[in-house]
Amino acid sequence: MMGEEQYRLLLRTMERNGELHRHPEPLNEADAAVLRAALAPVLRDLAAAGLSLPDVREEVHEDREWSVCAFIRDPGGTGQGISVMRERSFAEQVWELAGQVQQWATDIQVDPERPSQWPLCPEHRRAHALGADFRSDTAVWVCPETDRAVALIGALIPTPDR
């Protein structure tokens, strides 16, 4: 059962989050720097695949003390919230954002000439997507069939068929 004080705090948080959804606030410079740094390797991999980069909205949409929240959108306006934990290492932040951007890229992929998954596994004739993982203090793309790290997140080579 929730106590009176916890209940009031929950209501205030819900009210604040509703206001932020209607009227997002810009990230402060420190949070924006965390977001930009951790997102940069993931965006390099999107570009290497020839995919459109998202419009990154450096705005607070949800009040979370422990994480930096933002919003990404495609040129057509389809978007989703992303977040990264402040207290995690840089590599953990990259890994965390890679999975979120991977989901966004898969959701917005509507071009029938392009695969519906990203990033595609270079070792298996692009039959499946790689998965983001965190291994040995490093953010990596992993083949789901072999469980082998294929590349560092941010170091995928450009796809030859783009």
Shape, principal axes of CA atoms: globular
Q: Report the portion of residues in β strands.
A: 15-25%
Percent helix among the residues?
25-40%
What is the typical, i.e. mean, pLDDT?
84
Our count of helices gives: 3
**What can be said about the biggest beta sheet?**
3 strands, antiparallel
Count of extended strands: 8
Written as H for each helix and E for each strand, in order along the chain, the element string is HEHEEEEHEEE
Detail the poorly predicted runs: none
The structure class reads alpha+beta
**Termini distance?**
56 Å
- Our Rg estimate from Cα atoms comes to 18 Å
How many domains?
A: 1
**Strand order, largest beta sheet:** 2-4-5
Question: Could you walk me through the main structural features you see in this protein, from its secondary elements to its overall organization?
Answer:
The protein is α+β, with helices and mostly antiparallel strands and 162 residues long. The chain has one domain (25-152). It is built from three helices and eight strands. Helix 2 crosses helix 3. The longest helix has 20 residues, at 29-48.
Walk me through the topology:
Elements: H1 4-22, E1 25-26, H2 29-48, E2 55-57, E3 59-60, E4 67-73, E5 79-85, H3 90-108, E6 131-135, E7 138-142, E8 149-152
Antiparallel strand pairs: 1-3, 2-4, 4-5, 6-7, 7-8
Task: Give a quick set of tags describing it.
162 residues, alpha+beta, 3-stranded antiparallel sheet, 3 helices
Write a concise synopsis of the structure shown:
This protein has 162 residues and is of the alpha+beta class. 36% of the residues lie in helices and 22% in strands.
